[in-house]
Write a structure and sequence with these properties.
alpha/beta; five-stranded parallel beta sheet; 9 helices; 20% strand; globular; disordered C terminus
């Protein structure tokens, strides 16, 4: 049985995706060990939101190779998307997996162990895809609170931000898939859910007839769910209709407004 270790850098979306990749490895028969231990495969889910994040990503990738030079080091995520050509030349990295390909971690590893060249298949032009990556979780390390990814990408293209170039355009998860995942987690004893995404306020922009507010109304009806929280939102989404609707939900707890990070508690 091969051993695998994972390390996450960056946001809550990355954390969700790392959990999902870990569960894919477990289902494929890998034994998951702490990152500090010797493993056959190291998966680092990287971040590229700042230069510091880039540096930390490189450091963790090289640290993994030093811990076991014979191990397969997998670089995944945003830094891969931003610096893929550079990473292909890095001797410390064996497999690169860009965004929207994390779901294929296991088959890409199988190809690598079979001696096949996988680089061309593992990094896509993220700006051209409109597909929401099908990642799922059925458990999470925190046994009371579950972060649920419902959205990816951003259409804002702020001059200071690299995220639209590493995450692509807005892609929303289908509401029925979100509901199914939350119900499954509630059945396993989770009582609190935090909805998260790259640009959460844009949820539903690419879907017909549903908004973030509509989704929350649906989730609020799930039996057994006690608390519903949101990741960071933009101020402009908080209209009078928005606040009045949330105030009527039994599960809503707290929302955080960006960029000022003002916490708003609803009555």
């Amino acid at each position: 049985m091969r051993k695998a270790a994972l390390h996450n850098l960056g946001c809550k979306v990355n954390a969700y995706e790392t959990e999902a990749m870990q569960q894919l490895l477990e289902e494929a028969g890998y034994e998951i060990v702490p990152f500090q231990e010797k493993a056959d495969v190291y998966v680092i889910n990287t971040c590229s939101v700042t230069n510091i994040a880039d540096r930390k990503s490189r450091q963790m990738l090289h640290r993994a190779k030093k811990m076991n030079p014979a191990a397969v080091v997998v670089a995944a995520g945003c830094y891969v998307q931003a610096a893929g050509e550079e990473l292909k030349k890095d001797a410390a990295i064996d497999v690169i997996i860009g965004n929207n390909r994390k779901k294929d971690l296991v088959p890409l590893l199988d190809e690598y162990f079979a001696g096949k060249h996988v680089e061309e298949d593992s990094l896509i032009d993220i700006g051209k895809t409109r597909e929401y990556e099908a990642l799922h979780i059925n458990k999470i390390a925190d046994h009371t609170r579950a972060f649920i990814k419902i959205q990816d990408g951003c259409n804002q293209f702020c001059s200071y931000c690299i995220i639209p170039y590493t995450r692509g355009r807005v892609r929303s998860r289908k509401p029925e898939e979100i509901m199914e995942e939350i119900k499954g987690l509630v059945d396993r004893g989770y009582r609190e859910v935090v909805l998260t995404g790259i640009h959460l306020s844009s949820y539903g922009l690419d879907l017909d007839g549903i908004t973030l507010l509509d989704l929350m109304v649906k989730i609020d009806k799930i039996q057994g769910l006690e608390r519903l929280r949101l990741g960071s939102l933009e101020p402009r989404i908080v209209t009078e209709e928005f606040t009045r609707t949330l105030a009527g939900l039994r599960t809503i707890c707290l929302i955080s407004i960006c960029p000022c990070r003002v916490a708003v508690t609803l009555p």
